[in-house]
Structures are given as structure tokens and as C-alpha cells.
Amino acid sequence: MTAYTSDKIRILSFVSIVLVVFLHAFNLDNLQNATPLFYQSWVWFVEDAISYGFTRVAVPLFFLLSSYLYFLNTDGSLAGFVAKIKKRTRTLLIPFLFWSLFGIAFYFALQSIPQTAKFFTKGHIADFTPGQWLKTIFIHPIAYQLWFVRDLMVLILLSPLLYQGIKHFWKPMFVIAFVLWIIAPDVWQNSCEALLFFIVGGGISIHKPEKIETGYGQYSIIWMVFWMALVLLKTALHYANVPEQVIFGVFKLSILVGVFACWGFYDRLFAGSQNTNSALLKLSAFTFFIYASHEPVLTVFKKILFVVLSKTPMGHFEIYLAAPVLALLFCVIMGYGLKRFATPFYQFITGGR
Known about the structure:
The protein is built from 15 helices and two strands. By secondary structure, it is an all-alpha fold.
């Protein structure tokens, strides 16, 4: 892998986690007469277009790039996969357990303080049964973004089988995964998306690793415009009396186009440049820390801002913009401090990153 491609993966991963924070910043999901707050207003349109449109390319990119790197130069031997799985125990499983338990401890502390308890009433941790504890730690963490690592670990455990399937039956596997992604019920959508783009990334890594080194900037503007048009169309269709299946189809197409558009647009910006973006490269060192720590930090900022700002459409929009920015700044500053002054601990909670 060239240095340019390595930097590209690091920067796109950082940009993707910024998108994830804005995805989670959506604040109109409280219901008003069985519909989201300010439904089909301008603030709803903007938040929906960003959080349920543009940002939705982030997770597919993460799984695609994670799979590409995982399968790169794999010899297919069982011993090789055992070594890789052992390594992921340190880089994924241990951080997953830490951040899952930290989320529980953080919420327990907030639920134990009278002044903050009223803002964190969902699921009283002190009353958890053993079954609820296990479910909260491993299946549905309070830091809900950890589902990505959970599913990635499952796919990695299955990687010896997936490798054989991708190596010998890549196209049929892609078709099956694609169909599952389209027809799966909402509860399985994230996992089916993980499977599809893990297979895509693995297929590129195993069959055509050189393709990722190719520059795709030539037509990236066209792809970006197409992507933006699809997202805006999907959002606008909520105003029209069209079947949900149509909206769903446009949404899925926007994700596919968006992944390719983002990958190519990077080349448009940086291909041929002697130095990419040193600031983004420095910030990319904190990608995993931001991913793991931005919740419940983001939720806390949102709740604080809701106390300070009015609950009007403009107030919701101001919170929507301010909360993720504050959460990102907080996480970067905290990550920098831990990395500099508590390096062993920082490496432990980020899997040595």
C-alpha cells in the first residue's frame, strides 16, 4: 500500500467519524402527535438530509476499509487467521469491553446525582438484573455506537469462512448480501449493511487490491452532484405522497453512490499533492477515541443545551449544530491529554492506536 493510500484511508476514516457524530446529533426524534418534532419543516428537512442522508455513507466506508485492511496480504491459512483474530482481541474486544462498561458507569453516576438524574431516566442501572447487565454490556451497550465493533468482531470471527466464500464465490456472495441489505427488516439493517460492505472490502482486497490505488478524481464532481441530488430527493419525497419503498430505494442508491463519490472526491482534492492535509492527518490519530467516547458525551451536551436554549425549531437547529461540534472538541482535547500524559492507559482503551 502506498503512503498516499494509507493517508487517504486515515483521513476518510476521520471524516467518517465526524459524519457519525452529526448522524447521532439528530434531535427531532421525540414524537409530537405520533410524528417527529417539526415534521416536514425546514429544520426537519435539513437535519434529516444530513443525519439520514449525507452521513449514512460513514458506516459502509468503515466496514469496507476495515475489511480491505484485514484481508490485505492474507495467505488464507488457519494459522494466519488465528493470529489476526488474536490481534483483534487487543485492538477491538478489550476497547469494546472498556467503553461499554464506562458507558454504564457514566450513566450510573449521572443517575445517582439528584441534579442530573431527571435527565437520565431511561433504564435505571441500579435496578438491572443479571440478564440486563449482560445484554447492556455485550448486545446493546449504552454507548450505542459500539454496535459497529460488536458486528465487526462477529465478522472477524467468521473471517476464515468468509475468506473462502469471497475467494471462490465473491459475486454470488455479493448478490446475496446485497439482497439481504435491501429486504432485511429495520432491526437487521445495520448488521446486513456491515456484512455487505465487509464482503465488498474483502473482495477488493483479495481479488483486486491494486484497484484501491487507482485515482478516481476525474469524474468525482459528477458523482458528488449525483449523490447530493439523491439525498435531497430522498428527503423531499417525504413531503410527497409516494410509497415508502420508493423512498427506501432512493436512500439505498444514495448510499452506494455516496461511498464512491467520497472515495473519488478525495482524489480530486489531494491527488498529485506533495502533502495531503497535515491537520487532518494529525486529527485522524484520534478517530477511534472519538468513535468510542462521543457517546454519551454528545447526549450530555445536547441535554445541557436544551436547558439553555429554547425548544423552538431554531433552538433545535442551533443545538443540532453546536452539540456535535462541542462533543468533537471535547473528545479531541481529552484524547490529546490522555495520549500525552497517560499514554499506556490511552493505548489500552484504544487498542494500541
